[in-house]
Each structure stands twice: as C-alpha cells, then as structure tokens.
Write a structure and sequence with these properties.
Length: 252
C-alpha cells in the first residue's frame, strides 16, 4: 500500500526562535496522523537538529532538508552535504526544487548526482519535477516531466527508486495561488506512474509515492488528495502556518 505523505517546505523563512515555535505548534495541532501516513517538516538547515529532537516520540512525523550538495565534503564554501544532514538525524532531502533549478543553477545532471549522494547516505530524496507555464500552454508538460525524470532517476536500480518520493510541482502553480486543477494533477500523476512502470516495473510504479505541490492549501487539499494517483502534497507557503498545515494533513 502506498505511503501517503504531507511535507512542509519552509523555504528561507523563520529565525531560530520562530522556527522552534512553528515546529511546536505543528506538533500540537497534528494528531496522528493516521496509519500509513507521514508528515515531513522541512525547515532551513540551522533548525534541523532542533526539529529532529522536538519530533522524537512522534513516529509518523519526520524531518527533512531543503537541499544538499553532491559531494560529501571538501572546499565548497556555504554548501551542506548529505552526510551532514544524516548526522543531525534528518531523513529526507528535497532535490530538484524549481527554485534551486531557477536561482542556483541546479541542472538535471547535478540533480541526478545529488540524488545519488542522498541515497548513498541512506536518506530519501523528495525529487521535484514540473513544467513552466509556456510548456503547459503548448501542451508540452508531459515531455518536460518525462525528460526530468529520465535524467534524474533512470540510472537508479529498483531498490533505490523505491526510496524516492516524487513531487510533481508545476512551476506556474508554485507560490502563485494558481493551483493545478485536480484533473490536471491526476493526469500528470498517472502519466508519471505509467512512465515509471515502463522504465522500471509496474510493482515499483504502484508503490511509489507521488506528491502534488503548488499552492496547495486547506481549501483545495481535499479535492487534490482525493485523486487516485495523488498521494499527498509538498506544501510551501501554507506550511508556515500551523493551523493551515495541520488542516492540510487532516485531508490525507
Ligand atoms: C513549494 O515550494 O514546493 C510549493 C509547493 O510552494 P507553494 O505551496 O507555496 O506553492
């Protein structure tokens, strides 16, 4: 049975004190969640260790990082590696977010190397893919996403792929308030699952968790999560408000 997940990507928000308060508020408001569902808090790096300590004892609530560098260590000023993330007890790493692709030059090739380094450390990547608006407008969204998936994931073996969480995040929906319709989300998730069945096996495709991301909020989460191939969400803006985030978790 596929794992249902809601992950909250805080991006570059909250100071240390604010972040600790937000983790505590999330823990107070999220009950459970139910069996086979998981919540992943993804705060900035400096909060990872505190967050890991705070969620201890809540077996369905986990902590992830927003990015990592592809090398384990070395002269890469300002970067953080997968072994460093593992050393503080975080278990997930977002890789390939559209903001990393756009502002920090993360190419498909680099994203593939980051995924390798995350997997090598025993962590799970949350791999983001999704088309920009012109591709959607010219009906090229499936080609874009297929290309991103082939370049980032096709080199993995089946065991490795089973540890990957995929997040379909149409770039035009991220932080814009313009959500993909439930049908658009379902169509792309079904396409991704079908692609994985072709590239790997049907069993693996059936088991992999595919999240939707892009202006997901309490008012639209129920309809999005009700889609057959939508296994939860990667939440940006709404994850900064514990009431909104916990309301989205309830819709899983
Ligand atoms: C994101 O950045 O991954 C995201 C989905 O952002 P938002 O929910 O704010 O659109």
């Amino acid at each position: 049975m596929r794992q249902k997940i809601v992950a909250g990507n805080w991006k570059m928000n909250t100071t240390l004190d604010e972040g600790i308060i937000l983790v505590k508020e999330c823990l107070e408001r999220i009950d459970g969640p139910a069996d086979n569902t998981k919540v992943i808090l993804v705060p900035p790096f400096y909060l990872l260790k505190d967050a890991v300590l705070l969620v201890k004892g809540r077996s369905s609530i986990h902590v992830g990082a927003q990015n990592c560098y592809e090398a384990d260590s070395g002269a890469f000023t300002g970067e953080i590696s997968a072994p460093m993330i593992r050393s503080v007890g975080a278990e997930y790493v977002i890789v390939g977010h559209s903001e990393r692709r756009k502002y920090f030059g993360d190419t498909d090739e680099r994203i593939a190397r980051k995924i390798d380094s995350v997997l090598k450390e025993g962590l799970s990547p949350i791999f983001c893919c999704g088309e920009e608006l012109p591709a959607r407008q010219s009906d090229q969204q499936e080609n874009v996403v297929e290309n991103q998936i082939r370049k980032a994931l096709y080199h993995l073996n089946g065991d490795q792929l089973q540890r990957v969480i995929i997040a379909y995040e149409p770039v035009w929906a991220i932080g814009t308030g313009q959500t993909a319709s439930p049908q658009q989300a379902q169509d792309m998730h079904a396409f991704i699952r079908d692609l994985l069945a072709r590239l790997f096996t049907q069993e693996i495709a059936d088991e992999i968790t595919i999240l939707y991301g892009g202006s997901c909020k309490p008012s639209n989460a129920e309809e999005l999560f009700a889609q057959k191939d939508v296994d939860g969400g990667l939440i940006g803006g709404a994850s900064l408000n514990a009431n909104d985030f916990s309301a989205i978790v309830k819709e899983l």
